[in-house]
Specification:
The strands form 2 sheets. This protein has a 9-stranded mixed beta sheet with strand order 9-8-7-10-6-1-4-5-11, sandwiched between helices. The chain has a two-stranded antiparallel ribbon with strand order 2-3. It has one domain (2-218): Rossmann fold (3-Layer(aba) Sandwich), CATH 3.40.50. The longest helix has 15 residues, at 37-51. A hairpin with a 2-residue loop joins strand 7 and strand 8 (152-159). The protein is of the alpha/beta class. The chain has helices at 37-51, 68-78, 94-108, 127-135, 188-194, 204-207, 235-246; strands at residues 2-6, 9-11, 33-35, 57-64, 82-87, 112-116, 138-149, 152-159, 162-169, 172-176, 199-203.
């Protein structure tokens, strides 16, 4: 069985995002970029499934600029077998990403597709669900535990009311949540080996997928600064402030 795992290059979570001077987006020049944390969890889970003898190959896939090769190499250093980059400098919507993943699913015929439940740059949380609709594959989102049982998966999901366990038939799409596992660190020998692992680059135009956008970003702004609080001298004054200024009572 093949496993396709998606990895996205995003602004490192330790870096404070800054809006560009022209307000066209977030400043990404000369800042640290890394693999989306939810995707790291997806890679780790794919590797654990392979190490348990339930998969033969793990394919790391990224869609983005040429620099995304670094992100794929990180996944290869963790233990993935080969990488595929669909190269584009355009900012793609989740539907376009899902269509490109469908192209690879049809080409590679994986038994399992693992994606992070969302990317920390846009928090869309849509690609896995859209890919399921496009391919007809079963989906299990927000996974905090994944168990393989023959040709099916038992997935524990994190929902608002607690935990939910479902069973889906493979091939399937699983989106990973934070508590699924703890990603491993790539060791130096594996980082060196990753440089020799195959990495295929495909131009978006060669996929035949229409990735045109139906949305236009008009302007990006910083959130408003939080106003300083005040100290009140009594409960009566607090109630008065809540009534007259905050208008919550």
């Amino acid at each position: 069985m093949k496993i396709i795992v998606g990895v996205k290059r995003v602004l490192d979570y330790n870096v404070k995002a800054r809006v560009k001077a022209d307000k066209s987006g977030i400043e990404l020049a000369n800042v640290k970029m890394s693999m989306n944390p939810f995707d790291e969890i997806a890679v780790e889970e794919a590797l654990r499934i392979k190490e348990a003898g339930n998969a033969d190959e793990v394919i790391a896939v990224s869609i983005g600029p040429s620099q995304s090769q670094e992100t794929i190499r990180t996944a290869l250093a963790m233990g993935a077998d080969r990488g595929i980059l669909i190269e584009t400098d355009e900012l793609l919507e989740p539907l376009a990403i899902a269509k490109l993943f469908r192209h690879l699913v049809e080409k590679e015929q994986p038994g399992l597709v693992l994606l992070g439940k969302q990317a920390i740059d846009n928090d869309s949380n849509q690609t896995g669900q859209m890919l399921s609709a496009l391919t007809g594959m079963a989906q299990a989102t927000f996974a905090s535990r994944v168990e393989i049982d023959g040709d099916s998966l038992k997935v524990t999901r994190e929902v608002d009311s607690g935990l939910e366990s479902i069973k889906v038939q493979m091939p399937a799409i699983v989106t990973t949540d934070l508590r699924l596992n703890e990603p491993r660190y790539a060791k130096l020998p594996n980082i060196m080996k990753a440089k020799k692992k195959p990495l295929e680059t495909i131009a978006v135009a060669d996929t035949g997928v229409n990735v045109s956008s139906g949305l236009e970003v008009v302007e990006v702004n910083d959130p408003p600064k939080r106003e300083a609080g005040i100290i009140v001298g009594s409960v009566a004054e607090l109630v008065d402030k809540l009534r007259t200024e905050a208008k919550v009572i």
